[in-house]
Each structure stands twice: as structure tokens, then as C-alpha cells.
TrEMBL record:
Pfam entry (one): 7tm_1
Domain (G-protein coupled receptors family 1 profile): residue spans on this chain: 40-178
Chief location category: membrane
Species per Swiss-Prot/TrEMBL record: Staurois parvus
Membrane protein topology class: Multi-pass membrane protein
Localization per record: Cell membrane
Record key words, sorted: Cell membrane, G-protein coupled receptor, Membrane, Olfaction, Receptor, Sensory transduction, Transducer, Transmembrane, Transmembrane helix
Regions crossing the membrane: 20-47, 59-81, 101-119
Taxonomy, superkingdom: Eukaryota
Presence of keyword Membrane: yes
Identification of the protein by name: G-protein coupled receptors family 1 profile domain-containing protein
Family of this protein: Belongs to the G-protein coupled receptor 1 family.
SUPFAM superfamilies: Family A G protein-coupled receptor-like
Coiled-coil regions, chain positions: none
Length: 178
């Protein structure tokens, strides 16, 4: 007995679909939060880049965390805003897996980056005399690039593994992303 495992073309995202009366206030609320998040993170990136006094490892890592937060929020929020406006609740299979890949990549990168920031603070507190020798700019850049690579490479395996699974006939996802 062979089953037809034709992959679905699109998924239907249910998130907030039953809140017809609250769509516009929710849209405005999420839009304001999204814009403030972008503005705050872009301000941190801009100030850290321009101010010479902030050219230290802690601020370099904070700038990378802000860059990551811009990517992280931009992975999910535009689709949420589109759903709240009622334009399209559908997401293609390719877009779904692309969104999942970037969401997992940003989450993994954030975890490794926070561990790196903790290690930086450990060195600054426990080894203050060796700190400048251990954490100079080239080391910070190498560690940060390694962090980004770990996050983006490690999320390939779950994304590819999930994309090869068969899907059932229920194509509705009770969420607004993934």
C-alpha cells in the first residue's frame, strides 16, 4: 500500500486569525515595538561604531548582539504584521523553511555569542592583568566570526532534516511563524 506523500505547496498560519476586532490595535502595537527595537539596536550599532571610547571587546560583542537582534526580529515580525493586516496567512514551503533556518541560526548564534560575552567578562574580572593581551581586536573578530559560523552552520542540520519529513494533510499551523 503506497501513500501519496506529495509535499504541500503552502502552509496556512492561524496566529491571531480569531481576533478580528483587535487586528489593527495589535498591528500598531507590534509595529511600534518592532520599530523601537530596530531603532534601539541600530543606535547601539551606530554609537559603538563611531565612538572611539567604545572600541573595546565588551562593546564590540554588544554591537554584534545588536546586529543579531535586528536579524532575529526581522525574521519573524514582517510576516506577523502582514498576517495582522489580513493580507496573507499563507506561507510557501520554501519561505517556511527559510524562515525556520534564519530563526534557528539567529537563536543559536545568540546563545554562543552570550557565552562568548560571559567569557569576556570572566577574563576581565578574573584575569585583569592579562585581559588586553588575551582579548585584543583580532581575537575578538575571530571569536565573533566563529560564533556566527557556528550558529548558521549548526542550524543547517535540523532545517534539512525537517524539510525531508513527510507532511500530513493538515497544513494549518497554529502560530504566526515557522
Amino acid at each position: 500500500m503506497s501513500l501519496n506523500h506529495t509535499p504541500p505547496i503552502t502552509f496556512y498560519l492561524i496566529g491571531f486569525s480569531d481576533l478580528h476586532y483587535a487586528r489593527i490595535p495589535l498591528f500598531l502595537c507590534f509595529l511600534i515595538i518592532y520599530m523601537l527595537t530596530l531603532l534601539g539596536n541600530l543606535l547601539i550599532i551606530f554609537v559603538s561604531w563611531l565612538d572611539v571610547h567604545l572600541q573595546k571587546p565588551m562593546y564590540y560583542f554588544l554591537m554584534n548582539l545588536s546586529i543579531l537582534e535586528v536579524f532575529y526580529t526581522t525574521t519573524v515580525t514582517p510576516k506577523l504584521l502582514q498576517i495582522l493586516l489580513g493580507y496573507s496567512h499563507n506561507i510557501s514551503l520554501a519561505a517556511c523553511f527559510t524562515q525556520m533556518y534564519f530563526f534557528l541560526s539567529c537563536g543559536g548564534t545568540e546563545s554562543v555569542l552570550l557565552a562568548l560575552m560571559a567569557y569576556d567578562r570572566y577574563l576581565a574580572i578574573c584575569r585583569p592583568l592579562n585581559y588586553s593581551k588575551l582579548m585584543h581586536s583580532r581575537v575578538c573578530q575571530s571569536l565573533t566570526m566563529t560564533t556566527w559560523c557556528i550558529g548558521f552552520v549548526a542550524s543547517l542540520l535540523p532545517t534539512v532534516s525537517i524539510s525531508t519529513l513527510p507532511f500530513c494533510s493538515a497544513l494549518a499551523i497554529d502560530h504566526f511563524f515557522l
